[in-house]
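pinned: reference chain
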Amino acid sequence: MIEKKKKRTIGYKDFVDFPVLKCRNVACKIDTGAYTSSIHCNQIKIIIDENKQEWISFHLLDDSHPAYNKTEFKTSSFKTKAVRSSNGEQEVRFVIVVVLRLFGRSFEAEFTLADRGDMRFPVLLGRKLLKKRFIVDTARTNLSYKKKQRKLAKKKNAKQSN
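pinned: its C-alpha cells
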C-alpha cells in the first residue's frame, strides 16, 4: 500500500527563508489564486557574456525591506514566462528556481521576478508550490515562523541550562 505524505497546514501569511540567496524571514502571502510563486526584485538586467551566453542579474527586495542585503545575484539558469498580473495585464517575466525553507524543510520552486515594491508582501507562494504539500487555513498566520521561533527558544533554553 502506498502511503500518502501528510499535508502541513499553512496560514494565509508567513515568513520564508531563502538560504542560497542569504535572505531570512521574508514576509510572504499564501496566494491560491496565483499559479506560480513570485519574489520582489529590482535592477533586473540581461547580461550577455564574452561567450554569448545570457545571464540575468537582479537584487532581491529593496532597501525598504529588513531582509535586503544589497547583494547582486546572477544566474544563467532562467527562463521567461507570460504571466497575468493581479490587475489583469499580461507581462513577460523572468523565472528562476530557488530553494526556500518553510517548517524546517527545504523546497525547490519556480519564482517569477517581479517589482512588488508597492505590494504589502514581497513574496507570493502560489499553487504550484503549495500543491500536494500544504492545506491553507485562512484563519491562521505565521505557522512556520512560530515553529521556528519555538525551536530557537528551545535551543537557547537548552544552552542556558548546561
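why pinned: The chain has two helices and eleven strands. Residues 21 and 56 are 15 Å apart (CA to CA).
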